Amino acid sequence: xxxxxxxxxxxxxxxxxxxxxxxxAQMTPVQAQSLPRILSGVDLICQAKTGSGKTVAFxxxxxxxxxxxxxxxxxxxxxxxxxxxxxxxxELRKLARGVHNVKVLTLCGGMPFGPQIGSxxxxxxxxxxxxxxxxEHLRKGYLKLDALSLLVLDEADRMLEMxxxxxxxxxxxxxxxxxxxxxxxxxxxxxxxxxxxxxxVEPEVLQLREQHSSASIxxxxxxxxxxxxxxxxxxxxxxxxxxxxxxxxxNTRRDTEExxxxxxxxxxxxxxxxxxxxxxxxxxxxxxxxxxSISVLVATDVAARGLDIEDLDMVINYxxxxxxxxxTHRIGRTGRAGSSGMACSLYTDREARKIxxxxxxxxxxxxxxxxxxxxxxxxxxxxxxxSCLQLDSxxxxxxxxxxxxxxLTREEGxxxxxxxxxxxxxxxxxxxxxxxxxxEALRTLSQGKLKGRSVRVRKIR
Length: 461
What we know:
Blueprint: H1 13-21, H2 29-40, E1 44-47, H3 54-65, E2 75-78, H4 82-95, E3 104-107, H5 113-122, E4 126-129, H6 131-139, E5 150-153, H7 156-161, H8 165-172, E6 180-185, H9 190-199, E7 204-207, E8 217-223, H10 230-241, E9 246-249, H11 253-264, E10 270-273, H12 279-290, E11 296-299, H13 301-304, E12 314-317, H14 324-331, E13 341-347, H15 352-362, E14 386-391, H16 401-409, E15 419-424, E16 429-434, H17 438-447, E17 457-459
Parallel strand pairs: 1-6, 1-7, 2-4, 2-5, 3-4, 5-6, 8-13, 9-11, 9-12, 10-11, 12-13
Antiparallel strand pairs: 14-16, 14-17, 15-16
Helix pairs in contact: 2-3, 3-4, 6-8, 14-15
């Protein structure tokens, strides 16, 4: 039997059958190398990026070990952001379909505290959450981890960058010492080694550097005379290549706001994403970028975690990343799944040392290219392909994606292929439609009904 086949693993029948029904046959490199170790019970540090299949790896590990008849929290997965926690919880529920009555509960900041207390009182097998909110429930006595046997730290490097080190220590202090701990991180800095020493027992280390072929990612570098040229350089690149989706990475929160504001002066559709946005603004920014009603997202590395973008056309490094691994992680967000992508990096003489480190780390020869001509700045601004409509009803009003799609396409409404992504939150929902039919879509939803009631709809992009 092929060693990368899921059937080569010793898994419960329900898990194996469900994997087959989901079409999961061959393991990714991360899964093939980590799952046997996870199932054997060792502590594991795994260097793996978003999109490598790591959630399936640790998800199968914790579901295999789960005793469904024991109704207590047996596994805890900690994530840096609510978006990532939601993604992980969705994946775990999907994987658990073959095992009866598995309860997965999310505990994240930015959500009401009271309903989470009620959910905890009803019990759960698996908790997925952000460190701050999990620690708060522990401190106040609503969450008990006495029966915990498995701890997962997902994207641990970002949790440390966001200042969660003391919070993680406080959470670990409240759980049994006899447990398995799995740590996943896109990079492997000294801070990861330090926390691993405190919370793990003789961990095995698995480092998988994702290889991107030059065919999938075109990488370009542009040397500038000084920092004053950076904004215009970004504008030239965007107006020349006109990507449907591009992320401009900045090293600081302050830069994200300044860059986004300056790019709007070039009539580009831009939104900034950083840690100081409130949850509603963050949700809206991520939705508008994911559904392509905003073409350009300006973000810090931490804020960009949890981005669920399948086909990112372009990445621009406003500054070179502080770490060569972070640079690789940034550009790896484009050129996925066989599609081609472009990564452009700006630098000055003051970043010469970073350039040297990139050359050594990636074994590449970096040569400065020519920026698009300044004449491109006078070309007409381009619009993102979609518009975004916001509805004042969501999950709590029992609204589902099919309800919105049905309302849009009934009678003389818009056609199904003119409707894009639909995102539903507790009390609101967002739907993307082709820009040319946005007025018609707004009229159709405003005049019609969802679940027998009128809804307020407004165009936000």
